[in-house]
Write a structure and sequence with these properties.
Length: about 160
């Protein structure tokens, strides 16, 4: 299982440049804002979703202050979407509530989770995400983050979110 320290080691071993910031546990974007990080524009909001039948699971990664219309997104993806339970989050990504991050795919042994990344995030110099734990944030380039997901084997698509 990739926890916080395993993510740091993984990034170091892959020679992926990153900045690491330790902080108190945060569970929402609003709590992230309260930390006073200078780079809130770079913070990603992560939604772990499922289809109506619970057969497909989706990780949606958007700029932190964006709202996601689940009905519209579901229409794009051809299914009805709802938030997944904490049990599913633990089962598929090995994560706890509040620690959802695209780096959770490193725990997705079956590459079952479909990842959808906001194209606006991909235009930034760096993106801030949790390292599988909500007591730190790691900043890395969008290209490196996308490569980690692709190399792991999860399906990945970049979409436009209004």
């Amino acid at each position: 299982m990739f926890g916080k320290q395993e993510v740091k080691t993984f990034l170091e071993e892959k020679n992926i440049p990153f900045e690491w910031v330790e902080h108190k546990a945060v569970f929402t974007i609003e709590e992230m804002e309260e930390l006073g990080l200078e780079s809130m524009d770079e913070i990603a909001k992560n939604l772990f979703l499922r289809d109506q039948k619970g057969k497909r699971h989706f990780l949606v990664v958007v700029k932190g202050l964006k709202q996601v219309n689940l009905k519209e997104l579901g229409e794009k993806l051809g299914t009805k979407l709802s938030f997944s339970s904490e049990e599913r989050l633990e089962k598929y990504l090995g994560l706890k509530k509040g620690a959802v991050t695209p780096l959770g795919v490193l725990n997705d042994e079956n590459c079952a989770v479909e990842v959808y990344m906001d194209e606006d995030l991909c235009k930034l110099e760096r993106i801030g995400v949790h390292p599988n734990d909500n007591t730190a944030s790691v900043y890395l380039s969008p290209a490196d983050l996308l490569n980690i997901i692709k190399e792991h084997g999860n399906s990945l698509e970049v979409l436009s979110f209004a």
